[in-house]
Amino acid sequence: MNGHHAFISPKARIGRNVTIGEFTIIHDNVIIGDGVTIESHCIIGRPTPLAEGTPLTIGEKSLIRSHSVLYEGSTLGAGLRTGHHVLIREKTVAGLELQLGSFSNLEGQLTIGNHTRTHSNVHLGMGSRIGNFCWFFPYVVLTNDPHPPSDLCIGVTVEDYAAIATMSCVLPGIRVGTRSLVGASSVVNRDVPPETIVVGNPAKVIGPTSNIKHRDGSGESAYPWTKHFHKNYPKDAVAEWMAAHPKVVTKAG
To answer: Which of 14, 81, 143, 210 is the most buried if burial means most Cβ atoms within 10 Å?
Structure first.
């Protein structure tokens, strides 16, 4: 374990082959799995009474990039990847291989499934419920206060394989259906049906996602995106996707 010029609490439970960068602070109530890398100037397990005494747990083989702040009270699955300046508040529960772009903000008390990814500057409001293999592009915001400011917190639900494009805002309590697509700069104030495209302010249904053609000249539908985008996903998941969408081979003449 490295950690020159870092502060590492003797109460923290740290696994094998963990690398800790300079000027990082590891607080008491922290459990770090094997093979984790934490870069410089991070705050890990920042104390808060809102955690109610539960530890921050970081799964094995995770990578926390510089200037990130992770509060105590969250459970983060193996293979977490953050960009720089990421904030994860208390009572966040995330599955395997969550990827968070730089300056992304998880406001706590939210759940995230496996293999979900965000680009930079994404804000996931408190109480969000997010499925597996979801995508959030830059400057997406999930809100939770139906008439701000108030003490109400009604989180957004995003189902498996949904994609929310850049600069979109989803209003409190909305459900974004599985394999749906929210177009760029949309304001979503109604539930989005599965496998549907919504676009605009307010967002309106414009048809099924299968209507969008891939711009590779093939003429095939671009959705579901699992037919053609497999970068860094588990082999067993990709095999399942390909079995569900076999290539159709036609004979000339």
So the answer is: 143
